[in-house]
Amino acid sequence: MAISTEFQKRLQDLIDEEETKRSELHRKMGVDYRSLANALNYGIVPKPRTVAKFADYFDVSIPYLFGETDINDFEKASPQSSFSERFRSLCSERDESHYRVSQECHFDKSYISRWLNKNQLPSFEILDILCDYFDVSVDYLLGRTDNR
């Protein structure tokens, strides 16, 4: 389980700007109460899908949410794509097989079938590797923006 004080602080700052009660915020975000509470109280980084919901709610990029940038000029994709759609598209653009991507990025090819067939998302560690490999942002890879 990853812990990030930068993420914790940025999330707290965004919530402080809200007029919504903390007890209601998790419902508005569409996330589990414990995920939000753990992020705020301990800096525990939830799974990518939950972090994307936080970022969607506040209309910010994931790097902004993690404190990796202070630039907050996020533009949502219209319409948003899924991770699997983006992954397939990026493989196609590079004329790369899924197997080749898994070899080049040093992870098991079975992960890809889970992502594509079971609508699962990679961990942030693997997302970072894929972003470097395809030279795109995590928000682009997750289908949140069209800005690479």
Comma- or semicolon-separated keywords:
148 residues; mainly alpha; 434 Repressor (Amino-terminal Domain)
What does this structure look like?
This protein folds into two domains: 61 residues, lambda repressor-like DNA-binding domains (434 Repressor (Amino-terminal Domain)); 59 residues, 434 Repressor (Amino-terminal Domain) (Orthogonal Bundle), CATH 1.10.260. It is built from ten helices and no strands. The model has no long low-confidence stretch (mean pLDDT 94). It is mostly helical and 148 residues long.
Helix fraction bin = 55-70%
Class from helix and strand fractions = mainly alpha
Spell out the CATH superfamily of the largest domain: lambda repressor-like DNA-binding domains
CATH topology of the largest domain: 434 Repressor (Amino-terminal Domain)
pLDDT < 50 stretches: none
Count of DSSP strands = 0
Taken in chain order, the helices and strands follow as HHHHHHHHHH
Q: Compute the gyration radius: what is it?
A: 16 Å
- Please report the distance between the alpha carbons of the first and last residues: 28 Å
Arithmetic mean of pLDDT: 94
Strand content: under 5%
- CATH-derived architecture of the largest domain: Orthogonal Bundle
Helical stretch tally? 10
Shape by Cα distribution: elongated
- The CATH class of the largest domain turns out to be Mainly Alpha
Question: What characterizes the major β-sheet?
Answer: none
What is the total domain count? Answer: 2
